[in-house]
Amino acid sequence: DVKVTQSSRYLVKRTGEKVFLECVQDMDHENMFWYRQDPGLGLRLIYFSYDVKMKEKGDIPEGYSVSREKKERFSLILESASTNQTSMYLCASILQGDQPQHFGDGTRLSIL
Amino acid sequence: AQSVAQPEDQVNVAEGNPLTVKCTYSVSGNPYLFWYVQYPNRGLQFLLKYITGDNLVKGSYGFEAEFNKSQTSFHLKKPSALVSDSALYFCAVGGDNFNKFYFGSGTKLNVKP
């Protein structure tokens, strides 16, 4: 069974801090994704990666960056955290298009 | 461009009654359609998918979904709702370049005893 693990379930940080959210998958999936989830807005794609060191912007990349140095790990970076980045962050991976994306349990991030 | 719409923010149903959660989609080409469920403070769990074949697909926990190409719909159904089905449900379309998914805004299902 595919497992996607996000390093923190809950995180509290201060405005201006650099924040790292980590995601690891154990199924050798090529594609990995970072979403943020806000009430009434569904899931919005921040960034995705289709191979090691390859990344593409999603719909809302401003204020974020990503890193994929190894196939199994995809990191989301908040360069200078702001209160409007308080949200639920979800990581997902997929093998190929006719398969479901597999999600981690999410990180609920609060920026104070 | 691909998109998904879930027209209902919330659906209320009594336990034991049938439930339907609606989803319509817009895609170019053949759609890959998915339903997910999310319990509080958890990630999304895959319920079922339609890729090709029979229009009625069956999934986890007794859920099923009907693909209707002429109405571009993929509604989620269950014959008899349980209180434990109360959760947030997302419809998604996939199969785009880089295997990106497009999610609806979610529908909160409330099943009352």
Report on this model:
The complex is a heterodimer of chains A (112) and B (113). Chain A has 112 residues and is mainly beta. Chain A contains no helices and eleven strands. In chain A, strands 2, 4, 5, 6, 9, 10 and 11 form a seven-stranded mixed β-sheet that branches. In chain A, strands 1-3-8-7 form a four-stranded antiparallel β-sheet, with no helix packed on it. In chain A, strand 4 and strand 5 (42-51) form a beta hairpin. Chain A is globular, with a radius of gyration of 13 Å. The mean pLDDT of chain A is 94. Chain B is an all-beta fold. Helix content of chain B is 0%, strand content 51%. Chain B contains no helices and twelve strands. In chain B, strands 2, 5, 6, 10, 11 and 12 form a six-stranded mixed β-sheet that branches. Chain B has a four-stranded antiparallel β-sheet with strand order 3-9-8-7, with no helix packed on it. In chain B, a hairpin with a 4-residue loop joins strand 8 (64-68) and strand 9. The model of chain B has no long low-confidence stretch (mean pLDDT 93). Chain A binds chain B through residues 4, 9, 31, 33, 35, 40-43, 45, 48, 50, 56, 58, 90, 92, 94, 96-98, 100-106, 108, and chain B through 9, 32, 34, 36, 41-46, 49, 51, 90, 92, 94-96, 98-101, 103-106.
